[in-house]
TrEMBL record:
The chain crosses the membrane at residues 21-47, 80-97. One of its GO terms (molecular function) is phosphorelay sensor kinase activity. It is found in: Cell membrane. GO terms for cellular component: plasma membrane. SUPFAM superfamilies: ATPase domain of HSP90 chaperone/DNA topoisomerase II/histidine kinase, Homodimeric domain of signal transducing histidine kinase. Residues 166-383 form the Histidine kinase domain. Keywords: ATP-binding, Cell membrane, Kinase, Membrane, Nucleotide-binding, Phosphoprotein, Transferase, Transmembrane, Transmembrane helix, Two-component regulatory system. It is a multi-pass membrane protein. Its EC number is 2.7.13.3. This is histidine kinase.
Amino acid sequence: MRDKQKKHNRIVLTSKEKSELLIEGIVTIILLILLNLAMYMLLIQIVQSSLSIESMISNISTSIYDTFYSPTSYAWKKPIFFLLGIIDLSILYWRLIRRYRQMQQRHIISELHYISNGHYDHRIPFDLNGDSGKLIRSINALVDSTVEAIEEERRIEQSKDELITNVSHDIRTPLTSIIGYLGLIEEKKYSSDEELLKYTHTAYMKARQMKVLVDDLFEYTKVRQSNTPLSIMTFDMQQLIGQVVVDFELEASKKNVTVDFEASPSSLMMEGDTEKLVRVFDNLLSNALKYGVNGKQIIIHSEKIGSEVVITVKNDGKEIPKQSLDLLFDRFYRVEESRSQQTGGTGLGLAIAQSIVTLHNGYIYATSENGWTSFVIHLPLKSTEL
Ligand code: ATP
Ligand code: MG
C-alpha cells in the first residue's frame, strides 16, 4: 500500500474506507429524507392549521402526491424545496468530507507510527491541501532534521573514535622506543658511556616528540570549539608577519631557501588574537620549509583587499597532488603515505591553523600548481567578536 501511495502522491483509500464512506452517505441521505418529511409536515401544519388528525394525515399525503405529481398546484413550495435541496446537499457534502478528513488523519497517524518504528528513511508520501498538507510537510521536515542530527551525531562519534585511534598510534610509536631504550639501560645492555648517552638521547627525543603531540592535541581541541575566547587586540599585521619571517630566516638559509615578504601597504592595523595568528604563520612557514622538496624560495604576500587582509604563503618545489588539497586541513592528514615522524610533525598544524582562522571569521585554502604551493588566508580587518 505504501508503494502505491508513493506513486499516486495522494491518499489511496482502502476498500473498507470506501464502504465506510458509502454507508455514511446512505445513512445521511436517509436521515435527511426523514428530516425533510418532518419539516414538510410542520410546514403544512402551519399553513393549514386547526385540522383533525385524520384530515391532517390525508392532507399531508395529498400534499406529497401533489408535490410530486401536480407541482403546479403548490407552486409556492418550489423555492422551499429548492432551498431544502441545497441544504441537504451541503449537509451530505459536509458529512462526507468530515469523514474523509478523519480517514486522512488516520493515514497520517499510521505513517507516523511507521516512521517512529525506525523507518527513518521513509517520508509521508502524499501531499494534501490546507492544514493537513502543512502538517505533513512539517512532519517530513522534522524527520529530515532529526535524521540529519542523528547522522551528525554519528559522524562526531566516528571522528572521535578516529581521533583516539590516531592519538594512540602516534603516542604508542615513540613510547615503544622510549620503553625499549630505557629497558636496555635498565638491563645494562650497553657497552660504553657513549652508547648509554645515545640511548638516553634517543629516549629524550622521543619523549619530546610525545610532548609536542600532546601539546598540539590540547591546542587543537581548544581551538576547535567555536566558543573559544580570543584575546582580541589591535596590531600591525605586517609587523607581526615580519617578525615570524625573521625568526625563520636562519633556518631557511641553512637549507639555502630564501624568504621574501611583500607587504602592501607596509603597515596594516587590524584586530585579532596575535598569539594564535603567530601559530598559524609559524606552521605555514615551517611547512613550506619542511615539505617544499627541492624548493628554493618562500614568498609571503600580505595585501589589504576591501575590508580584509589576504595573506599568501607560497613555496616552490614539489606540488601537492590535487586529491590531497582539500584533505590537508583534516587533523592527522599527511600527504606522505607513511606516517613516519622523520619527515614532519603530527599532522595537526593545518587543522589548528584552519580552526584559528575560522575563529577570526576568516577562511584558508590551499592551491598547488605551476611548481608553486600556496596557502591563502582571508581575514576580516575588524573582529566581529568585539
Ligand atoms: P605539524 O604541523 O602538526 O607539526 P604536519 O606539518 O605534518 O605536522 P600539517 O601542518 O597539518 O601537519 O600539514 C599536513 C600535511 O600537509 C603535511 O604532512 C604535508 O604532507 C602537507 N603539506 C603542508 N604544507 C605543505 C607544503 N607547503 N608543501 C607540500 N606539502 C605540504
Ligand atoms: Mg605543519
